[in-house]
# Entry
Amino acid sequence: MALQTGDVFGRYELVSWLGRGGMAETWRAQLVGDAGVTKPVLIKKVLPEYANDEAFISMFISEARISATLSHGNVAQVFDFGRVDGEYFLAMEFVDGQPLHRVLKRALKTGMAALPTPVAVFIAMEMCRGLHYAHTRINGSGAPLGIVHRDISPDNVLLGYEGQIKIVDFGIAKAQLLRGFKTAPGVVKGKYLFFSPEQARGEEVDARTDVWATGVVLYELLCGRLPVEGPPHVVMMRLGRGEIPAPVVLRPELPKELNDIVMKALTPDRNQRFESSHAFGDALAGFLYSNFPRFSAMSIAHLLRVLFRGDLVQEGRELPVPGSFLEEMKSWREQTATAEPAALAPVERQPTRRVTRVARPSITETTEPRALAAPSGMSRQMVYGLSAGGLLTVGACLWLLLDSPASQPFTGAPPPTPIRPSVAVVEPSPPPPPTSPPVTPEPEKTASADPIRNVASEPPPVSEKEAAAVKKMKDAVASAIRRNQAADAVYHSNHCEELYPNNEDCRLLKRQVNENFFAERPPPSTARKSAGELDITEANILDVQMRVQGLLRSKDMEGALQLANDCAAALPKLAECQLILGVVHGRLKNHRESEQHYNNFLMLAPPDHIKRARVLDILSKQAESKSP
# Structure
């Protein structure tokens, strides 16, 4: 019979059901003692389907024996172990707070691109302290227990409303002492996205595997995304080769000292990593207290209380947060913001001007649509704006390039239907480059009589949902303009028009962004000449792509490869250049080089890049073709 809230389970009274994992379900409970004394605990009960699995129960008992020996401020303690009605359970320390993965998710939802630097570093530092304690445990004879967690991830780190940071679930830890328990060769456990290279290869692991996983967690906290993503076989392949972009690629404002610390923890050769979690934690402590000397655990407590204030209120609790911390958090949000909350002042409406919509030219045409382009030298958010659907001219045309026959190193896989969104052209605007003929507006006609639709006429009705969404994006653009964040402004204005192409306010946003950031801007200083004196810049990557496409169609492979290489040399951190190189090498049947550049693209491109899924599919087919 299934357990319910209020049931008595051995010496414990079940308070609330918390969740169900792959091997056990968890309950919040309380130990009921004499004279009404109670103690909150977490009950972890083996699922019924595993109750008769001797190998699993043996591992669970091993977990209990290992965990019961651990007593450290950064490790959740095990108080009790036993069986009730034939079901094994652990009674563990209850941490009043939230798992780290939920904290990061809530921070992103509130407008941060990642956790603030001191917060992320402090969390990783405390994790290192708990892990080093476990790694160095010895038995009564002084022999090391050889404990390795092997499943470090944000799911297994708890943050408390009082600032505690606790590692939980040593369930797949390995202690050589316990019954000679040894994982079978080649068996890998845990979450593959956090695997060390040696773990991905199925090799024997030691404490340095936990150093790697802690480095991955810190990377995700600092950058808002994992260093390697994709299906298991792609991740394993890239981890084994150590193909990881430095954190500064995604977050350029990070100090070099911190970037170097993270990359040392993520060195593929374990002999070159930090030799212990203690050494890793010391390096983080040195950075933290040199740059943020007053940071403490209470900052973690206050952050949680702000992020989860609604949850606490629903529970009838309201934990105090000082005003000084709210000011500090405001500065953090401004430093890591992806979009400001909708409470900001809306964008003032500009006088109505004539705006036309022009159909996107086909891949064989040479006319280049005039879309908003961020200046050369912008940070990761600029690349995000260019790649993730912000500047649709780039994403759509690279979609066409990648799906052309020139890019297909494999046969038998039908390409997806190309996406061909339209692009807004604002008039008046700067003339197009000399290589592209200007787009001349036709005399005004009705929408039904002319493919170029005049939108200065009566706008279509707007739903309440659309109006609210557009207002939020207008607020985000207004905030970006006030903070002089061109990349954010470009992204939100383009995203507005992408979602609501017929909304006049979205078109006005593009005009406003253009006037605020790109009017009379000097030519980029990081240009490189190639293939007929073509300027290679982030602003004209579309022209580069079209030129490569033309060279491939004319079978000028040498010229296409030269232009693709020049693109990567001029703009080494632009994902689109790596994508073009992958396509060209695929056409040349240089599969190894093509795979390398596709992987580089995945490292540099944001998670929702329009071509990420297609590239992963190509890499998957290439991996299958290598299988015996």
